Amino acid sequence: SSSAASDVYKRQFLDSAASSQKPEAVVGAMDHYYHHLHANVHRGVYQLSQEATDAFEKARHLVTRFINAPSDKEVLFVRGTTEGINLVASSFGRKFFKEGDEVIISAMEHHSNIVPWQLICEQTGAKLKVIPVSEEGELDMEAYANMLSEKTKLVAVVHVSNTLGTINPVEQIIELAHAQDVPVLLDGAQAIPHLKIDVQALDVDFYTFSGHKMFGPTGIGILYGKEKWLNAMPPYQGGGEMIETVSFEKTTFNELPHKFEAGTPDIAGAVGLGAAVEYMESLGHEAISQHEHELLVYGIEELKKIEGIRLIGTAKNKASVISFLLDGTHPYDVGTILDQMGIAVRTGHHCTQPLMDRLGIPGTVRASFAVYNTKEDIDRLVEGVKRAAKMLK
């Protein structure tokens, strides 16, 4: 009952970093909502609307517990990590950035944690500063510490690299920033499926992630923000739900979290995300981490035996992502041959073009693992890479 769609398992699916497969519990929860509970939320006095609202807010509370947020008020539903970052860039940036201010990101960021900051910097006159990354795929923490200054208004860094699998030292990143009263946003898209996230223990100011990478549906995600910042920030969008009173002269805004949730939300998506949280809790973070770490170690050991392979991203602390190149071949060609064998991997720059430029490569072949993968999947991957090496050389 917890297996993902059976059609997918006719092949080796090794692209969970792009989007994970969905357990029956998630699909079933969304199906039940549409068959039995659908009505608009927070609107109606009638029973069905109240039941839909209860299901929607239950999902929010499940997430609050899952990431150990202090309050449901600090957990906002968004479309995904991308919208979460854009919300903070637009709202926090409009409020707090000015000419000459600085925003610190890193050289391993996904485009979603680069472009929104570029846009708001263009509008406000602030500047982007970039933490360098080593050949192994680790951040230069000494350089980061030296970048922080009275000009720094925000640090926005990926928790786990989608391309390299590097788990960044986010506790240290936050501690150094907070020592100078600088808030921190973490892009948690790749961390949330693999690691136990405790936003209070991290003391992070903003944490955002997508449902579809943690066995939930697409089009739904979470932005956690400390209440003091969310109260200080202007609304990101205007419309229904985010208002308290409206007249042609003046509008007053709703309380948190509704202030940032304009319009009818993705109710079924939220219900599905709540079911994904319960599914992950039923497995247990320790069991998930242990299984994925075993796959990572096994995959690295077996792939390294292949002549001409080059692993990209060899940080000491990694999540279950392996990026690699084969000498004398293009990643796309390797991926195409693997696909013909029923092995799904990602090829290209993985929305991290500046990182590829830093490493001097056109892209990589990326295999990423989740709880439903097995060592047999990796054996098939190794077999496929060996065949690609023979065919392409």
Write the element-wise H/E pattern from the N-terminal end onward.
EHHEHEHEHEHEHEEHEEHHEEHEEHEH
* Helix fraction by DSSP (H/I, runs of at least 4): 25-40%
Radius of gyration: 22 Å
Report the structural category. alpha/beta
Principal-axis shape: globular
User: Regarding quaternary structure, how should these chains be classified?
Assistant: single chain
**Helical region count?**
13
Can you list the strand order of the major beta sheet? Answer: 2-8-7-6-5-3-4
* Arithmetic mean of pLDDT: 94
Q: Cα distance, first to last residue?
A: 44 Å
Report the count of strand segments. Answer: 15
The share of residues in extended strands comes to 15-25%
Describe the largest sheet: 7 strands, mixed
Which residues form runs of ≥5 with pLDDT under 50?
A: 1-9
Can you offer a commentary on this structure?
The chain is an alpha/beta fold and 393 residues long. It contains 13 helices and 15 strands. It has helices at 24-37, 47-66, 81-96, 115-124, 141-147, 170-178, 199-202, 227-232, 267-283, 285-303, 331-340, 353-359, 375-392; strands spanning 12-13, 75-78, 102-106, 127-131, 152-158, 184-187, 206-210, 221-225, 243-246, 251-253, 309-312, 321-326, 343-344, 346-348, 364-368. The strands form four sheets. Strands 2-8-7-6-5-3-4 form a seven-stranded mixed sheet, sandwiched between helices. Strands 11-12-15-14 form a four-stranded antiparallel sheet, with helices on one face. Strands 1-13 form a two-stranded parallel ribbon. α7 (199-202) links the parallel β6 and β7 (206-210). α1 packs antiparallel against α9, α2 packs across α9 (267-283) and α11 (331-340) crosses α13. The longest helix has 20 residues, at 47-66. The radius of gyration is 22 Å and the shape is globular.
